[in-house]
Amino acid sequence: MREFNVITEFKNSINANNIEIYIYKMRVRDFENKHNENYDIVKELIKLNNNPTIIFYEQYIASFIEIQNWGSEKYIDVEKRIITLDSNEKKILERLLLKEIKDSIDKEKYKVIKNSIYINKPVYYEKGIKIDRYFNFDININCNNEIIIGFDAKHIFEYINTLECEIKNDNVKIGDKVKDYFYNLTYEYVGIAPFTISEANEYMGCSIIDYYENKNQGYIVNKLPKDMKAVLVKNNKNSIFPYIPSRLKKVCRFENLPQNVLKDFNNRVKQKTNEKMQFMVSEVINIVKNSEHINVEKINMLCGNIGYKLKDLQHPDLLFGNSRAQKYPLYGLKNFGVYENKTIEIKYFIDPILAKNNINLKKVIKFCDELECFSNMLGVKLDRVKLKDKVNFKEIKIDNEDIFSYELKKIASNYNETTIVILSEENLSKYYNIIKKTFSGGNEIPTQCIGFDTLSYNEKNKDSIFFNILLGIYAKSGIQPWILKEKLNSDCFIGLDVSRENKVNKAGVIQVVGKDGKVLKTKVISASQSGEKIKLETLKEIVFEAVGSYENAYGCRPKHITFHRDGISREELENLKNTMNNLGIEFDYIEITKGINRRIATISDDKQWKTVMGRCYYKDDSAFICTTKPYEGMGMAQPIRIRRVFGSLDIEKIVEDAYKLTFMHVGAISKVRLPITTYYADLSSTYGNRDLIPSNIDTNCLYFI
User: Fold this and answer.
1) Domain-by-domain residue ranges, the chain?
2) Number of helical (H) and strand (E) elements in the chain, helices listed first
């Protein structure tokens, strides 16, 4: 049977060296703001010239046609020509082509919101929820002047009712995320204000109505009832201020969808691979059909026609107890146990609500006994340690967050060992962060939280439930349940990530992984970073820690290190070159990206699209690979992109290593989409920014699993 391999990108039939554009050079007015200072100028030029397709990049403004009217602005120089292959000029044409696509859409069918193109008609509008489908595009010009356009279709969820209606329906609680969809700003809901929008308040020194009228924005409040109650919201700087409830909606996320809507989404909205590929190709041709400089031909989506080579990567063999090999953790653990046999000292914390109910308490005790017995069979003894002081779980008050947090701090000194926390589902959702902050963040106690509903297992699902719970406990206790049978191509891997939360950037907890896929070290690099870059001194600390960890594990210095990074920094790379050269260690610097606006699929003679796990399309220094295979009901698999930014390892070897590391997530029996280098770095930096793991973590224990 013949197969045709397709990627959701196409090679434009018009090359960059066939497109002339006007390039205007502008003077730099503010060096600190040079990346954005032409934004307002371009907005004005679009109005003055009735020409929407004008863009800027750095100190350049560009258009396909001459800009006649400049108002009060002046440019230094202008050229009408094709671009050079300089990175800045490629970026100029890429932006201009993307702007042309957005400006030329059929507005009866589509609309532009920010950088995405939405289908006007929602795919779902029921039960208080609206679901829209939209497309993201990205454009890249390669060294052969070829214009490559990638695309993907996604969904976004929104509540139909405003916050005003949701409050009347008693469907809002303090702490909910709310969003002003007019300005695209997100806040935290604090509560109903003790004043109306027409009454003066201490926050503004006037009423909300007066506030907008003073800003010449009376149109926002003119038609609102003056007795409408204001609400209080909090921004990411913890500042509280009043807001008009009819301008806000609750933030709607997939994981928070009501069960009846989730069922509708899975059955009626989510597309299977075959349906999605046919839909995307058809819609993209429609979207770009009016673009003067874009021309789509289906044949230019075949991988062979746009320069990709294909390779199918195999599932690696894993080593379990007694170095016995198996491909799948479920069977490897069941048949051979864990790779490392150790004893873990444990303690339990039981939800006071559960402890007060004899039936529930007996169920908890039975579960604890069975869990310990199951772990013994895997080769890890869970040694139950008595609390120093007698703790009566029934007496612990759990009325609200403040009281529970205080009660936990009183008994925290009793817990120095790995702690298994069993809570009702409601309290688990409510107090998870408090548990983690008090035990893990504040006292360096590894904790495994379990919802009470999980204890209602049967013989059919018992094994998978117990495996996942125990793997979480083992990972937090530094036990390696399996390793790779075959060594990786690089000696050592370092995962780097900068987490951003509340506009604070920190280098993530670095992940150092050995040549057998084992996590050698996880360590907090706590210095705040500028933007997405990691400072020189922080980089040096990361490298020294990694080399030291490798020497401790393998008795020699690594000859080659591979850095995995989500996003790149040229300055960071140059600093790495100097440090690694001084140490005499070769290295590769690899960008691994998950949000790439691409899907990859195969169509056979039977005309059915499918995704194949392990299938890799590679070209030059980059590759796209499908690392998962969700069942059809979950929708279509999303590939990741792997790109060599610097180094000498062959791209096929780089991809092979990264793929094998997606099987090394030891916190669950199911594999993950990303290699553990970047997956763990991302998880740990997010947990670190929220104070859910120790601030001085320096261990092989994975607190963030």
Assistant:
1) 177-250, 341-476, 487-590+674-692
2) 17, 37
Residue 290, CB-side half-sphere exposure with 13 Å CA sphere = 12
Q: Which uninterrupted H or E stretch holds 644? A: strand 640-646
Q: What are phi and psi of 90, to 5 degrees?
A: -60, -40
Give the CATH fold of the 487-590+674-692 domain. Nucleotidyltransferase; domain 5 (3.30.420)
Contact 146, 166 (CB under 8 A): no
Q: Which residue matches tokens 């039977």?
A: 606
pLDDT value of position 680: 85
Element spanning 573, H or E: helix 570-583
Q: Where are the alpha helices (DSSP H) in 17-137?
A: 39-49, 87-103
CA angle 248, 254, 258 (to 5 degrees): 85
* Integer Cα distance of 379 and 373 in angstroms: 10
Q: Where are the beta strands (DSSP E) in 44-165?
A: 54-57, 60-63, 77-81, 110-113, 116-119, 124-126, 129-141, 147-159
Q: Which helix (H) or strand (E) holds 187?
A: strand 185-196
Beta bridge partners of 586: 560
Query: How large is the average pLDDT for residues 248-259?
Result: 88
CATH of segment(s) 341-476: 3.40.50.2300
Residues β-bridged to residue 250: 178
345 touches 478 (CB < 8 A): no
Whole-prediction pTM: 0.86
What pLDDT, on the 0 to 100 scale, is given for residue 442? 64
Q: Give pLDDT tens digits for 413-459.
A: 888 888 999 998 888 888 888 888 888 766 678 889 999 999 998 88
Quick check: 705 and 667 in contact, CB under 8 A?
A: yes
CA pseudo-torsion sign 11, 17, 19, 24? positive
Is residue 632's pLDDT more than 70?
A: no
Of the chain, the percentage scoring pLDDT greater than 70 comes to: 92
Sign of CA dihedral 290, 293, 298, 301: negative
Q: Do domains 341-476 and 487-590+674-692 have the same CATH topology?
A: no
Q: What per-residue confidence (pLDDT) applies to 631?
A: 63
Residue with tokens 């679901």: 131
Residue 214 burial by CB count (10 A; 0-12/13-18/19+): exposed, middle or buried?
A: exposed
SS (HEC) of 441-493: HHHCCCEEEEEHHHHCCCCCCHHHHHHHHHHHHHHHCCCCCCEECCCCCCCEE
Query: 547-600, pLDDT tens digit by residue?
Result: 988 998 899 999 999 999 887 767 788 888 999 999 999 999 999 998 888 888
First-last CA distance in the chain: 43
> If you average pLDDT over residues 299-306, what whole number do you get?
85
Q: Cα dihedral angle (224, 228, 229, 230), rounded to 10 degrees?
A: 10
CB atoms inside a 10 Å sphere around CB 5 = 17
pLDDT at 503: 47
HEC secondary structure over 190-251: EEEEEEECCCCECCCCECHHHHHHHCCCHHHCCCCCCCCEEEEEECCCCCEEEECHHHEEEC
Instruction: Return the H-helix or E-strand segment holding 309.
Output: strand 309-312
